[in-house]
Amino acid sequence: MAATARILDFLRDRRPEGPCLVVDLEVIADNYRAFRRAMPDTRIFYAVKANPAPEILKMLADMGSCFDTASVPEIEMALAAGATADRISFGNTIKKERDIARAHALGVKLFAVDSDEEVEKVARAAPGAQVFCRILTDGAGAEWPLSRKFGCEPAMAVDVLMHAHRLGLEAYGISFHVGSQQTRLEAWDQALEESKAIFDAMQARGITLKMVNLGGGFPTRYLKEVPGTGSYANAIHEALTKHFGNAIPETIIEPGRGMVGNAGVVKAEVVLISKKHANDNHRWVYLDIGKFGGLAETMDEAIRYPIVTAKDGDEKAPCVIAGPTCDSADVLYEKVPYDLPVTLTVGDEVLIEATGAYTTTYAAVAFNGFSPLKSYVI
Amino acid sequence: MAATARILDFLRDRRPEGPCLVVDLEVIADNYRAFRRAMPDTRIFYAVKANPAPEILKMLADMGSCFDTASVPEIEMALAAGATADRISFGNTIKKERDIARAHALGVKLFAVDSDEEVEKVARAAPGAQVFCRILTDGAGAEWPLSRKFGCEPAMAVDVLMHAHRLGLEAYGISFHVGSQQTRLEAWDQALEESKAIFDAMQARGITLKMVNLGGGFPTRYLKEVPGTGSYANAIHEALTKHFGNAIPETIIEPGRGMVGNAGVVKAEVVLISKKHANDNHRWVYLDIGKFGGLAETMDEAIRYPIVTAKDGDEKAPCVIAGPTCDSADVLYEKVPYDLPVTLTVGDEVLIEATGAYTTTYAAVAFNGFSPLKSYVI
């Protein structure tokens, strides 16, 4: 989680101007190896959306990773990084038919669906492709729960997969997502129980499903301790054995945050510290990065990043932390104020840790005239 | 509010691929003239952040507008559009000292402050400049209320302005912002009463303030009817007369949404329509634009845009509306579902009206691999 020596050296030597993200590739390599070691029978599809920096994709492609993509540009980035099309999944359940056709033309064979309508588009634009149906889970225990946007009720998945079969697609498997930053290990158990029921219902109709996509949800450590990769692997293995016995299907995982979250650190600067009235109990600390500069996941104060300063040994007091734009919604932590050193002053540098995932690409293109977050991959 | 004939012609003739914003300059020109007519004694500072398209800035500069800017790049854009530095205000209360110095070097003389700390930066980096102190208002009645991020309690403003005076700055005036999309006409009355009290307190200390910056907050019509510019002008004029009598100060306004909101229309496409289970009461309608593609102001369903389809004569039924990314937070309207025609199908075009403000620059730079919102100014 903490900034690595390589990151600190880079910041000290290069002194980049303005807020920036620095990502340490060695941490990502360690994470990849930890996933591979913990789940040797599971294929790893890195969720490109978490951080699509070309250096990251290239290294993971070289290490043998597969890629979960959300759009045609992400497919093209994975191919450019050296992944072959058979290692790429088009994992977004919401695709334009012409984008499915482009993915098909690029050789992609594996597509996510969660409705008859999407099955029909895939059948027309990518005939013969493999599809997996995403099912809804309740997402309890996740810090960034997934609402009901993706997936259908398990009872409907059988109909969707039978529809795919009838239209000449290969009904290949099931996917689910327990919710991002999921710390409740049992979350996978219920989803796998439901997956097994769908496998059985399909088998009764003469179709053998082959794959369970276990999704992402593997957490990064922010302020609170989280279980390690090994604990997740054990919980998932136990649930697979419990529900599938000795007929465990092919499995894949889609780590994004769990692969790159702890590999990145944002360097930012204190622009202003002020109070709203003479007796205000809380200082307002304004940074040169905020919700529209890459820290969008602070929305509703969902993700609470560790913030490190050079003065952390000094006494601390609660602050409201806000971004630099003229948008009043650009406040990071206000409902639950954040303790920062009382000696912190304007111009001080702060490090916002565990920001390797879902930061650079979330940044607004030019809101208030500010540039998007710069990124250095070392 | 509705798409103009020029916008509809442009979309029909050019058939731009992908989601895009089309802005009609003639609507903006009409809005500018309406503000000037309704408030002939007030200088208009267009809030560049609402939409910084060069064509818009150029036209407004030619018409005589001044510009409220949030950053050095916005100052540079206003200068490039032909505004002289004396027509530019650096209206962000959160500025790096080196950015104040750059603004000063570019000739900008008018700066916003709301704390002693910011006053000290301005005094060092822009000696002799004019400053106005932003005060907090409660924002009641605004659809996009402004929290407490900007401004200080009125009681503290006198101290801040006296501090500016002692450091050689010109204590020039007061600013406030009643909250964006403010429909309660009385909102300005309370803020002007507080402004007058600060004028009096400064006068008692031998300093004559000259200006009240009435801020923005002028609404665009989305789904609900809003009062016209004339009603706002009357309410403000009455409040000014009530509190300042025959010594009405210089006033400025900073319309952003009210200047460009109704001039733009987003063209989008239905990517998928599905249900979550066989008996689902709500269809899920997925568009190719969402919260990260430019419609960030749907956050908490705050702004409810009018959505127009070619099938609006048909029966309608409630839908959840979501964007195309793999982010479950990318849902536009779910708590209060949105009525759309039951005949709407995948591939249909929809027009999202009143999207001229706070859309293009809010778009994420590349989230999920999707391009930022394209913009055409005609």
UniProtKB/TrEMBL annotation, chains A, B:
Q: Where is the Orn/DAP/Arg decarboxylase 2 N-terminal domain?
A: 28-260
Biochemical pathway: Amine and polyamine biosynthesis; putrescine biosynthesis via L-ornithine pathway; putrescine from L-ornithine: step 1/1
Q: Which InterPro entries match?
A: Ala_racemase/Decarboxylase_C, De-COase2_N, De-COase2_pyr-phos_BS, Orn/DAP/Arg_de-COase, Orn_de-COase, PLP-binding_barrel
Alphabetical list of Gene3D superfamilies matching this protein? Alanine racemase, Lyase, Ornithine Decarboxylase, Chain A, domain 1
Its cofactor is: pyridoxal 5'-phosphate
Q: Give a yes or no for keyword Lyase in this entry.
A: yes
Q: What is its EC number?
A: 4.1.1.17
Q: Which residues form the active site?
A: C326 (proton donor)
N6-(pyridoxal phosphate)lysine PTM sites in chain numbering? K49
A single GO BP term for this record reads: putrescine biosynthetic process from arginine, via ornithine
Reaction(s) catalysed by this chain, per the record, are: L-ornithine + H(+) = putrescine + CO2
Q: Which GO terms describe its molecular function?
A: ornithine decarboxylase activity
Cellular component terms (Gene Ontology)? cytoplasm
Q: Which UniProt keywords apply?
A: Lyase, Pyridoxal phosphate
Q: Where are the coiled-coil regions?
A: none
Superkingdom, according to UniProt? Bacteria
What protein family is recorded? Answer: Belongs to the Orn/Lys/Arg decarboxylase class-II family.
Put simply, this protein is called ornithine decarboxylase
Originating species: Aestuariivirga litoralis
